[in-house]
Each structure stands twice: as structure tokens, then as C-alpha cells.
Design a protein that fits this description.
alpha/beta; two-stranded antiparallel sheet
Length: 328
């Protein structure tokens, strides 16, 4: 009898531990950091991606950098998120696009190469810095060579249903909303050079998801290629003078996209150096002209400087402009 009681006691004791073992195993499995989110804004059942996997997390002096990968149109893509220390609830999101041959580390890295991380810490917004794809063909902005860059070529590049890079942007917004509780009415697109062209494209195509945009060193091209116009206009920071003095008179299709004349008109901040020897300042001034003609809200900052880069004061001025807008 005593023997039987002991056996039952042992059995009951073992059984009582099973729920705790199950809970422990669940916690261990979930520590892998895998979440699944699907962007299906039009509710048509056509989700953009499969799995989103949180990768390595790095703590820096003013926040946390997290590497994440997600599958877009069958291809694994990577994005770096920076979340400032002490960020408030429902923070804005700035999606920052690098230029040709660049990487997400141009914007988000341990050393804060662009200064955007410290600026995000001061102003309380989250940064998403995605990595472009290697595209093994030329386009209007990359004549004669392939490279890492953002797709903007018509017609597929201008559709959120066919351009994997635009699908990527939509998924980043969906993930940031789930993971960081960002304010989806305050999502901003920021880019430099090819990334600036893509920021313009993103704002025009995803005008119901992007509250405002800022481009630097890019603009709007009607020439056959970006290099067709090489005008530099020293000493002038006025677009009317720059356009009149440029000698550029292309009349082809607008690239990266024909600026819409109807629908929500996304406000834009435009920046360029007047002696840019890679992408002519004429293109940013031409974009300003088109936005003016079509009734958009915009501001322009032209730096009286040499080189292909942001004009002085670009980041604070761009943020002051963008942060004033949110989706209706």
C-alpha cells in the first residue's frame, strides 16, 4: 500500500511539472525574435511578405540599433532600425534611403555617420534605413553600369504592385507600427541622390502612407539620363536664376515619376548644392517648378557649395518642414 502511494505521488509530481515545462519551452522558442507581419492595406488578401526576423541588436550611446530581415517578392531584404533612448509613445518614423553604391549604414551605424541618429534622439523619432538591391542592368539614372540602387524605371518601378522596393517600404511601415508603435500618420521619406529620387517616387506613389518627403541631391529629370545635364551655377541660390542659367532644356518624360496633378499632394523639402558635379542642381529646381505649377506645398534649400552632398543645414531644415505635416 505504501509502495503504491509512493508511485502515485511520484506520478502526480511529474505531471504537475508538465505545464511549467511547456511554458519554458515556449519562452525558449520565442527568444529567436521571429515575428510575422503582413502589409495588406487594400484588404485584397494579397500579402506582400512572409517572415520578418529580428537580428542583432546593438546598444549605442543614444539608443538601440536593430538589424532586421524580411522577405519581399521572394527576396530577403535587410533594414536597420534606430530607436532613440527615451523615445515617447507613438513616435514618428523617418525612412532614410541611401544613394547609389551605398548601404543602410550610411544612415544608421555605430558611429552615426550622417548625424541622423543624434538628430532622431534630440527630436524623438525612429529611423528605418533599408538596404537597396543589386540591380544587374542600367536605367536612366545608371547608364552603362549595374549597382546597388533603388528601382525607379518606368513602368514597373512606378507601381507599388510591381516594384519590390515600394513593397519593401510598405512592409517597413507595417513592421514599425507593430514593433515600435510608430504613428502611422507621421511617416516621412528622406533620401540622398538615387535615394532622393526614390524618396520622391515613394511619396508620389504611396501618398496615402507618406506624410511628407525630403530629397537631397536629386530632383526631377526630363532628360534621357541624369548625366545629360551637368549644369553648375556658382554664386546663385535662387532656382529661377539657376534654371535660366543652366542651359538645360530637356523635354522627355518626368523621372523618377510624372508628378501627379490630383489626389493628395505630399509636401516636399528639396535640397541641393549649386555646384554639384554628379547630379545637376537644375533637377531640384525643375522639381520645385513642377511642384509650384501643380499646387504642392514645398520648400527649397540651395547651398552655395561644391560637391555632391547635402547643403549645409539640410537635416534640421528638412525635419522642421516634414514634422509639421501628418496624414489627414
Amino acid at each position: 500500500m505504501l509502495k503504491n502511494i509512493s508511485q502515485k505521488t511520484i506520478i502526480y509530481s511529474i505531471l504537475s511539472f508538465i505545464p511549467f515545462i511547456i511554458i519554458l519551452m515556449t519562452l525558449i522558442l520565442n527568444c529567436g525574435g521571429t515575428t510575422t507581419t503582413n502589409a495588406d492595406d487594400d484588404n485584397d488578401g494579397d500579402t506582400l511578405t512572409g517572415e520578418t526576423i529580428d537580428g542583432e541588436e546593438t546598444t549605442v550611446s543614444n539608443g538601440t540599433i536593430t538589424q532586421a530581415t524580411m522577405t519581399i517578392d521572394g527576396t530577403e531584404r535587410s533594414v536597420s532600425f534606430f530607436v532613440p533612448t527615451g523615445v515617447g509613445s507613438s513616435p514618428p518614423l523617418v525612412i532614410a534611403f541611401h544613394g547609389t553604391s551605398g548601404s543602410s549604414q550610411d544612415w544608421v551605424d555605430d558611429g552615426d555617420p550622417s548625424g541622423l541618429q543624434e538628430f532622431a534622439h534630440t527630436n524623438g523619432f525612429v529611423i528605418a534605413a533599408p538596404q537597396s538591391r543589386y540591380i544587374d542592368e542600367e536605367d536612366w539614372d545608371h547608364e552603362g553600369f549595374s549597382d546597388y540602387y533603388w528601382e525607379t524605371a518606368a513602368p514597373d518601378g512606378q507601381s507599388a504592385d510591381t516594384n519590390p522596393d515600394l513593397m519593401f517600404v510598405r512592409q517597413i511601415i507595417a513592421d514599425a507600427a507593430t514593433t515600435y508603435s510608430i504613428n502611422t500618420n507621421r511617416v516621412y521619406a528622406l533620401g540622398f541622390s538615387n535615394g532622393g529620387f526614390f524618396a520622391v517616387l515613394t511619396a508620389m506613389v504611396l501618398n496615402d502612407e507618406i506624410a511628407a518627403f525630403a530629397e537631397g541631391g536629386s530632383g526631377l529629370v526630363t532628360c534621357d539620363t541624369t548625366r545629360s545635364c551637368t549644369a553648375q551655377v556658382a554664386s546663385s541660390t535662387t532656382c529661377s536664376t539657376i534654371i535660366a542659367s543652366s542651359g538645360c532644356s530637356c523635354s522627355g518624360s518626368e523621372k523618377p515619376i510624372t508628378i501627379p496633378s490630383s489626389g493628395r499632394k505630399v509636401p516636399g523639402f528639396l535640397g541641393h548644392n549649386n555646384q554639384d558635379d554628379t547630379v545637376s542642381v537644375y533637377y531640384t529646381c525643375y522639381l520645385a517648378d513642377r511642384l509650384e505649377d501643380l499646387g504642392y506645398t514645398y520648400e527649397v534649400l540651395i547651398g552655395d557649395e561644391e560637391g555632391h552632398g547635402f547643403p549645409n543645414g539640410f537635416l534640421p531644415d528638412a525635419w522642421d518642414f516634414m514634422s509639421a505635416y501628418e496624414l489627414p
